[in-house]
Amino acid sequence: MILQTGRQTKAILVVAAGLLLLVSPSSSLSEEPSLALGQLPNVPIPSHNLQFTSKVELGKLLFFDPRLSKDGSVSCASCHVPAAGFADPRQFSLGVGGKQGGRNAPPAMNAAYNHLQFWDGRAGSLEEQALGPIQNPIEMAETLNGVVTKLSRVKVYQARFQAVFGEDVSADGIAKAIAAFERTLISTNSPFDRSIAGDTTALSASAQRGLDLFQGKARCVLCHNGPNFTDNKFHHIGVPQTGPLQEDVGRYAVTKREADRRAFKTPSLRSVALSAPYMHTGGFKTLEEVVEFYNSGGEAVPGKDALMSALNLTDQEKKDLVEFMNGLTGELTNMALPKLP
Questions:
Q1: Domain check: are 213 and 235 in the same one?
Q2: Parallel, antiparallel, or unpaired for β 8-16 and 19-23?
Q3: Is there a single domain that holds both residue 68 and residue 124?
Q4: H-assigned helices in 67-110
Q5: Do residues 215 and 171 share a domain?
Q6: pTM higher than 0.85
Q7: Residue 127: active-site member
Q8: Do the domain assignments include residue 335?
Q9: Where a domain ends, among 182, 215, 244?
Q10: Which structural domain range is residue 269 located in?
């Protein structure tokens, strides 16, 4: 249905997951809301940072190397743990000197499909994101010049940067190599993927009911949609504030738009069973707690997304939803730890 005033289209009403959604006419209906789930497409590779094996291998070394931090104690993998879906199993990550961050580290797995990086979307690419923690005083607490100087003293890094980039160690090369490695951290071939490819036994009966709920009564698909189970947008869903921050304004810190206050990026749900705890606060220890939170409609706070309301799920429906999300756990490459130079 299209609402018009004179000749100008003002809004479009779309039926999705049993709801009427008001959609901006500036976005195509194929994009907003795009609710179709499916298998992941090829990883998008930027033309300025083409992917090849030696670059990925260099990025893997850098990802696991604590020399990127000021005192040599923290690597990217310290907060993006392979066994935890490349997320942090701690509620809040610890940086140099034991300094505590204010958010749970988001998974690096499948981050290649994100339009923006970090919970607040402050980085526009994996390359930009890779350099952020190095310079953050409560994470790696180093400078880019400091990292370049340290790595330049390591003969293996000297040789690898020359081989990959044709130049000495540089911040730009560090960013591109780490980003190239992160574009290989893809969770795929999950029971869900095998099911939609035709394997009728891949999902249990409970998981299949959970999928139906996910796309229907539970309304998860309104935000967790597309092949990567995220709309790549920002929402204020009423997550209780916990941790060292008195208030976390979320996307507002980047855009300064009041509508973005306490809005955070929708995370992918692929391999979500591996990446506890959940939400930007790390405030929920289990998927069962997450489902209970959504079932209640979230915390009653000003500015909360209008789509957040009580779901009235039964106990069995809650179990089925969790079973479906467990069925999103896929296979992952590049799990073996590298031998650092």
A1: yes
A2: antiparallel
A3: yes
A4: 76-79
A5: no
A6: yes
A7: no
A8: no
A9: 182
A10: 36-41+188-326
What local confidence, expressed as pLDDT, does residue 10 receive?
35
Query: Is residue 287 helix, strand or coil?
Result: helix
pLDDT of residue 336: 81
Question: Mean of the per-residue pLDDT values for the chain?
Answer: 90
CB atoms within 10 A of CB 251: 25
- Does residue 334 lie within any of the structural domains? no
Dist. CA 169–CA 155, nearest whole Å: 11
Report if residue 48 sits inside a domain.
no
Inside any domain, residue 193: yes
Residue (of 246, 209, 200) closest to 323 by Cα position: 209
31, 32, 57, 139: the catalytic one is: 139
Q: What is the pLDDT of residue 110?
A: 96
Specify the residue for token string 């293996």. 156
* Residue 41 CB contacts under 8 Å (≥ 6 apart), including other chains: 227
Average pLDDT of the residues in 56-72: 98
Task: Say if residue 159 is in the same domain as residue 219.
Answer: no
Share of the chain above pLDDT 70, in %: 89
Q: Are the CB atoms for 213 and 313 separated by under 8 Å?
A: yes
Can you give the CATH number for the domain in which 312 is found? 1.10.760.10
Q: Which of 143, 159, 182 is the last residue of a domain?
A: 182
Q: What is the pLDDT of residue 212?
A: 97
Token digits of residue 337: 């730890």
23 and 85 belong to one structural domain: no
pLDDT at 18 over 60: no
Q: Is 233 exposed, middle or buried (0-12, 13-18, 19+ CB in 10 A)?
A: middle
| Upstream peptide bond of 107 is cis (omega within 30 degrees of 0) | no
Per the listing, tokens 């071939």 go with 189
Ramachandran angles phi, psi of 338, nearest 5°: -80, 160
The model's confidence at residue 53, banded by pLDDT at 50, 70 and 90, is: very high
Q: What's the farthest any 2 CA atoms get from each other in the chain?
A: 70
Q: 230 and 279 in one domain?
A: yes
